[in-house]
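S2.1 Query sequence (TRAP-type C4-dicarboxylate transport system, substrate-binding protein)
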Amino acid sequence: MKNNILFILAILFLTVLAACQGDNSNASSSEENGGSSEGEYTLRVGITQNDQNAEFKGIEQFKEGVEERTNGDITVETYHSDQLASIPDLIEQASTGTNVGTITDAGQIGDIKNEFYILQSPYMFEDYEEIDKFLESDPYHEWVEEFKDNGLQILSFNFKLGERNLATNTKIETPEDLEGNVIRTNGSQIVNATVSGMGGSPSGMPWTEAYPGLEQGVIDGVEAHNLAIYESSLYEVIDHIAKTNHYQLVSGMVVSADWFSNLPEEYQDILIEEAQLAGDTASEIATEQSQEYEQAMKEEGVEFIEVDREKFKERAEDAFSEIGLEDVKAEIDEVLDNE
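Output structure tokens follow.
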């Protein structure tokens, strides 16, 4: 009798052990796809700017909307100030299937698919209305579909963050004044070509190194928009901002295409819709903040200089041929003319 009881207990133990191993296997598989053992999904979104920036307020709204509409099945974690990783690192991680996302400008994803450079090319668009026309065009939607081949899903491209100008220690009024000045860029080919074409010497470096770079004289200036300049306190280490407005900054929310494709279709639609709404909100905030920050920097002693943009535009034209964008530019010019 005793042996029978021991035999039955052994069978029960093996049955429970097998069931536990099966549960662990399922949990591991779920976690590898950005989910948990309960079947939920997690997306981690990181940006370079701080928690006061319009981008961060946009992704906070995105988090709230997605979690509410999916009843918590999708959890969105938000990170600012490169706490999660730098934008290039996040893009690379997302392309390999990791459950991460970021807000990136066109220059950085243009390094992956050159056509996107056109959204950050010098003096390509007159204003945001023209950019909106392009974002509704067939060529743009074709590029988004093709971009999935690189492992990346674009959720929206409507984070309009303001005009990019030259913030420097040297007073810049003409392209000739810019010659010899080392200007910080994000390192993307199109931005480097733009700065070089206008007369400066581009130096790619992380944004977090811009302040000490200016303070120590490693660089002479940055090309940036008011939000980035003010919120990083660069007004403390620059004296002038030349209003070149060489392009209007527009950025997009990008996530892993593999992670995205494993979501239920309903959830995919929710992410796209909430990303678009987040971009709209960030854009409204950015417009208000840009004006406030310009006035605040003037009060701090920064001189804003109205320049002859046509002179800078003429010099920057070389960027299109340097990057090989002549055909793309012609295609988009045709789209804008036909709208």
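The longest strand covers residues 152-168. Residues 1-33, 35-39 have pLDDT under 50 and may be disordered.
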